[in-house]
Design a protein that fits this description.
The relative contact order is 0.18. The chain is globular, with a radius of gyration of 18 Å. With about 200 residues, it is an alpha+beta fold.
């Protein structure tokens, strides 16, 4: 009985939240969420595996819609959502559709974020930073730091708030080596495996 109790305690204490989050993401077929960035962006974001993305912009460029097709490796931008005749097609690396922090559309999903966090963790450390309520949800807080100057895209430290039930990010902050906040993103109203209309990503 004692051995079983100790084994459970060790699993509870040493479970890696980043690996758990990646496993949770791997089980998903898709999700949608409202992204609110520290730069003032508000985007209704939808993702469907293997990499379809749809962004509906509230701030800035209210009404704009961006759709990404992972097979064509092509993004379609409709600057004015109501004006279907005006469309622009471009590659995912195009500067016009990069985020304020420089992220490309094809690497804007939760999975890409978690893989970057994992890379930093494997070249650094991870520590628990407590628990908090966020948007009415219970969240685990974890910090991942690079060691010896190691960075991922200029990021030296991530602070993550992970939903205790879904084990998916509710909020993330990215910091430089000097401690400057590079980007903060709040993920509101997360919905897993929604039923998307057939032509939603076209």
């Amino acid at each position: 009985m004692l051995a079983a109790t100790l084994a459970f305690f060790q699993v509870t204490v040493f479970a890696d939240p980043v690996d758990e989050a990646l496993s949770s993401f791997a089980r998903l077929g898709g999700y949608r969420v409202t992204l609110r960035s520290s730069a003032g962006e508000v985007i209704r974001y939808s993702f469907k595996k293997p990499g379809y993305i749809r962004m509906e912009f509230e701030k800035p460029h209210k009404g704009a819609v961006l759709v990404y097709d992972p097979f064509k490796k092509e993004a379609l931008l409709r600057p004015f959502g109501f004006l279907k005749s005006l469309e622009m097609r471009m590659g995912p690396q195009d500067r016009l559709i990069r985020s304020s922090s420089g992220h490309t559309v094809d690497e804007s999903d939760i999975g890409s974020l978690l893989r970057n966090v994992k890379t930093l963790k494997e070249n650094g450390s991870i520590e628990a930073a407590g628990q908090e309520k966020l948007g009415g949800r219970d969240a685990l807080v974890a910090e991942v730091r690079g060691i010896g100057g190691f960075e991922v895209d200029g990021i030296s430290r991530y602070r993550l708030w992970l939903d205790k039930t879904l084990m998916l990010p509710l909020k993330v902050e990215a910091y430089s080596r000097s401690g400057e906040l590079l980007e903060g993103v709040l993920m509101d109203d997360i919905e897993t495996d929604p039923a998307f209309p057939a032509d939603f990503f076209k």
